Batch of 2 targets.
Target 1
Amino acid sequence: MPSTLPEGDPVPADGSLPAQASAGLSDRSLSFYLHVPFCATRCGYCDFNTYTAGELGSAASAQSWLDAALDEVDLAAKVLAATGEHRPVSTVFVGGGTPSLVGADALTRLLGAVRDRFGLIQGAEVSTEANPESTDPALLAALREAGYTRLSLGLQSVSARVLQVLDRTHTAGRALQVVGWARAAGFEHVNLDLIYGTPGESDDEFADSLAAAVHSGVDHVSAYSLIVEPGTRLARQVRSGLLPMPDEDVLADRYLLADAALTGAGLSWYEVSNWARDAAARCRHNLAYWTGGDWWGIGPGAHSHVGGVRWWNVKHPAAYAAALAASRSPGHARETLDDDARRLEEILLRLRLADGLEVALLTPQGLATAASSAADGLLDQDRLRDGRAVLTLRGRLLADGIALRLTE
Ligand SMILES: C[S@@+](CC[C@H](N)C(=O)[O-])C[C@H]1O[C@@H](n2cnc3c(N)ncnc32)[C@H](O)[C@@H]1O
Ligand code: SF4
């Protein structure tokens, strides 16, 4: 079962935002994240807020979730209209869970609701995640027709052994076939997710996965190290000694392998775990998260951020549907970041970007840390002289630790 939610200040029943959220709205982009909380089966390593049919029973259904999600789009329109500003939406991202499981009609209706209530900017990025086993050419054609522009697929690995340890139900061949179908359907941008460091994975298996991703011709690759999340089946297998914990040195070597293979194939890093063919192939939705954009997260457990006000929805699909059916905000709690908290968050997120962060954000102590990190080869000396803290390749291996020290 997904872990519990953090606490915070209460969210008013009408979902209205504090005055702070309205300041400077027109300077920020608006995005929507739409969360699909269903999976056919649960992968043992994953603690995302998603449920199998067996876990849900009769408590909630795809229909009750869709009705509630459409109601939440209406709520978002009301709440944001009250800020006095109308902004068309720059990016939409449908994630999960398994969006491909709910089918084209539901995904078309969700996007249609956002478009009707807010409008989309010219050239908006509209992404959906999809699992290879529940994606076929008819689904992809319908999604293109509906206005989706970008597909994000979980290849994870080409090794059948690794896919089995991860409990993935697709074959590598199927995932690569879906890439071909996506291109034939006219998707402008396609991403493949890879995982490295799965217990038992060899360097060669990861190299093969990278080669397959490159060879598929996608314009974006995300490569994540396997995180052993507390409470998952994987964590229990590691605790009981059935599987070894991913080794830090192995993870670092795999990251270097990923960067060499992807860079060699013409994809450049733009965030520590993300590589893209060119600027147009970068995921603008994720960039909005990382650069302080506003986004409204629709769906159970979804998080939102508007002008330094963050809130998160109740997690269970039944509680989520019940709140909206009673015309109440599904927000579980919220927090309002003060200037210092916003500065710290900006440092943590921006340091992970290839563009780095302006050193003006750092305190004198943070500046001294930046200088010593550059002397240690973790930050780029030339960029630092130009006023930006930008990670070197070695620095990327230690990104979060360096970012934390820069916040001092
Ligand atoms: C939560 S899934 C949602 C999309 C889709 N169901 C899928 O699995 O591709 C998004 C990505 O997060 C990755 N992920 C989930 N749990 C993870 C973990 N513990 N460590 C690393 N990556 C993880 C998945 O492998 C997947 O690529
Ligand atoms: S399919 Fe994706 S979201 Fe579902 S359990 Fe597996 S990793 Fe998590």
Target 2
Amino acid sequence: MRIDTAAGSILCDPWVNPAYFASWFPFPDNSQLDWETLGQVDYLYVSHLHRDHFDAAHLKRFVSKKATVLLPAFPTSEMEDELRELGFTSFLRTRNEEVHELDGGLKIMIQSLTSPTDGPIGDSSLWVEYDGVRLLNQNDARPTDLSTFAELGHVHAHMLQFSGAIWYPMVYELPQAAKTAFGKQKRDRQFDRTWRYIDDLKADHVFPIAGPPCFLDDELWQFNDIHGDEGNIFPDQSVFLSEYAKVGGTNGVVLLPGSVAEITTDSCETTHPVPVDEFFADKVAHLEEMRERKRPVIEAEKASWRHPEIDVLKEMKRRVEPLLEESVYLAKGVGGPVRFDLVGYDGESVESIVVDFPGKEVRPYADEKVRYRFRTERALVEHLLHIGEVDWVNSLFLPCRFSAARIGQYNEFVYAFFKCLSRERQQYAEGWYDEHERSSDAEDVTIGDWVVQRRCPHLKADLTRFGIVEGDQLTCQLHGWRFDLASGRCLTSVGHKIRAHRAETPAS
Ligand code: FES
């Protein structure tokens, strides 16, 4: 998205090239826009380092290096470092949730989310005001609520994510019926969360953005929402409009690449390169045409992944064992071995490697019970080791080029650990969990028949707003985590106990 005002232009998350081992492509295709012109901007805003937001090749080639980067206040300097590498030199290091006045009366505020589960250690939203018009590009950030923005005055345009951007449940080795049921739950939850955010802000116009991606490699084609699968987690913008209409939403605006929306305090006029309805009616044809056109790009990427000279076990030992050694909270949170089955180039031979969290070592699999098992191509891991990737969630899991099985519940610490394969990131994540473990969450509230701690044990959502109690179970609607109130046990993930007891006088 590019925001143009008389006081300057801001280019937001220009993503064009495929991300995550050529798995995700932007849909609709935006590669044929006039990027030479679009890249001539005054400001650049990149919400976070996920590769479907931070497209290094595109930033390098097309975005003016005279642009000032509006930098979120993230705990590590990685984003600034990477942008400097690409040639950017002018940075405005914003302060979290503070309005900054730029030249010509343009005002911006960036809210940075910094828990280890937010993006690749950090995600953010951009608020902009010019000439009385206010816009929130919430993107795919998930703040607990939008009050920080609402307090700055009525918002006219609200851009937010509504679709899926994860590998769950598709990659799990589950019977198809279970996968469909979990997928459907997830799809419903994504929409519920979106309605809640929209309701929080009550903007004049709502723009569904930030996904879904499309999958053009034949191996991943089934993930596109074109097969009538009600458990598909990647509904598109046209589905958003019809679902939104069911809950009474009439102010949704869909933009295609090349669409322009002129927003004033009392109107929103849009022009589109082709009629939006027609475009989505032809979605399968568009995807098939893209698939043919992008085939060489995918093939070229695939050819670059193999590094047979790398001894994966040895290299993983060298990279991961020092981190295991230093890890306290993450290693304890994982609490068991995690197995990687690496499929060789022939598609059949398998090397099994275990990251043993209690034993603090990386070693060959020893016919044991493991907490998680991931099965993927050896070449992908070779490539990550070759480039020294520090975030395997960003790069190995988001591509969806793997299958997974687990014993027991979802374990967020597994993903937090593999997102933090550098000392800097790991220290940050360890410190974050340490602080949260210590912080006493003293305030209790009554919800239905129960007195519970006010803040969700997951990421501190206010349960007076997000908590729904049904019988003895509480669901926090921010990410859908469930808790058994009688025992306090979290039913969604390991750890994260909730404090709760039955109310003597139930709340009305
Ligand atoms: S904050 Fe994530 S489920 Fe409650």
